[in-house]
Amino acid sequence: MLIQRFTLGAALCAIIALTACTDNQGVNAATGALGGAAVGSLIGNGSGRTAAMLGGAAVGGVIGARQPTN
CA 32, CA 30: separation in Å to the nearest integer? Predict the structure, then answer.
């Protein structure tokens, strides 16, 4: 359980860092969505895991799209 939480935290930090690598808002949203889906895959079982992946992708996409561009 502790390893899963550590992995989840590390993945969230990586998502935030990667979404700020470009000034293209679409790329930031896509990177955030992919990262969010990856984090969601660590949570739940069966159809709950699928729901967590979809939710993670949605939240990651929003976070990525909201990253400031220069």
Answer: 5
